[in-house]
Design goal:
This protein is mostly helical. Helices cover 44% and strands 9% of the residues. The protein folds into two domains: 3-61, 434 Repressor (Amino-terminal Domain); 66-148, no CATH class. It has helices at 3-13, 18-25, 29-36, 44-54, 111-126, 130-140, and strands spanning 84-86, 92-97, 101-102, 105-106. A hairpin with a 5-residue loop joins β1 and β2. α5 (111-126) packs across α6 (130-140). It is elongated. 22% of the residues are buried.
Length: 149
């Protein structure tokens, strides 16, 4: 569900007005209205704050289908020629990309290591700042299959 719809639905379920939400977020009511109308979108960190105030998982405020992502790093498999990871016998693994899973072995040992190594690629692909990319990865990565063990 798009961010603007999730925001309206969740705010209303909580019985909050735009003004009440705005006060808790330290923004104007007009900012909340613009988000809900789809005129603008809040930053990654603001979405995390909104999730905290509304008591929902932050990932709900990102319109992301995690089933279409590498289940280790979050790279979309919709990227053209995205190489899949391989098992020890050379068979393709449908859940992981080649940069995370090679010959039956995971490359990254921790979420922090993954985020540190992949942030520059996310920055290049999206134009995000380093802080935004790290924050975004911090929202997505814990919801991926490999890190939910």
């Amino acid at each position: 569900m798009p961010f603007k719809e999730t925001l309206v639905e969740t705010r209303e379920q909580r019985g909050m007005t735009q003004q009440e939400l705005a006060s808790k977020l330290y923004v104007t009511r007009q900012a909340v209205s613009r988000w809900e109308n789809g005129e603008t979108e809040p930053s990654v960190d603001m979405r995390k704050l909104i999730a905290t105030v509304l008591d929902i998982p932050a990932i709900r405020l990102f319109d992301i289908d995690t089933t279409q992502l590498c289940q280790c790093c979050g790279t979309p498999f919709t990227v053209p020629n995205m190489p899949r990871g391989t098992e020890a016998d050379g068979a393709e693994n449908p859940d992981y990309c080649q940069w995370c899973y090679d010959s039956g072995q995971f490359v990254y040992k921790s979420e922090d290591e993954l985020i540190e190594k992949t942030t520059p690629f996310l920055m290049e692909a999206t134009g995000m700042s380093q802080d935004e990319a790290v924050s975004f990865m911090g929202v997505i990565v814990p919801h991926l299959k490999h890190w939910q063990r």
